[in-house]
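User: I'm putting together a teaching handout on how sequence relates to shape, and I'd like one worked example. Could you take (S)-ureidoglycine aminohydrolase cupin domain-containing protein from Linum tenue, show the sequence you're using, and then write out its predicted structure as tokens right after it?

Assistant: Happy to. First the sequence, then the structure tokens directly below it.
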Amino acid sequence: MQSPAASRLLFASVVASLLALACQAHRREDGSSLITQPIPSNLDLKIPPSDSAHLGAAAIHPRREEIEKRIQVKKSGMKIVRNPPDSKLADLGVRSWPRWAFAPSKFPWTYSANETSYILEGKAKIYPEGSDEGVVISAGDLADFPKGMSCTWEVSAPIYKHYKFND
């Protein structure tokens, strides 16, 4: 018979393996992943206290710094949050914002006000003025663009977004 501590460790290992298998199982027919964010390889496992008589469930929490790196991109004043929680979108009132659509193309743009956008569909690469490196935005991204920012949009798949100008 295994000790309770060994059982908890085995359980935590099984949970981590199941998460990895779930990622592999969520693939589209073309081989691309349905999961847009990687599962962090470095997890903090919170295991119930050893005096507990039962195994309980191991709660897995990625480290805060990993979450920040994984879901936020900041460049030239832009801030992109990948797949924000529905609660954040509801708090912002995103679904009530106006919509904007644009076909695949390449065009220059300068923001006359701070803008927050939520990408519903599509994909684009945004090149801040003076930079050869672009930032990709796609469905599920919440993006903040600062007033005065000049950039070039390179839309590769039709973009549909909600947007709001902020003071």
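A couple of points you could highlight for students: Residues 19-60 have pLDDT under 50 and may be disordered. The first helix runs from residue 4 to 25.
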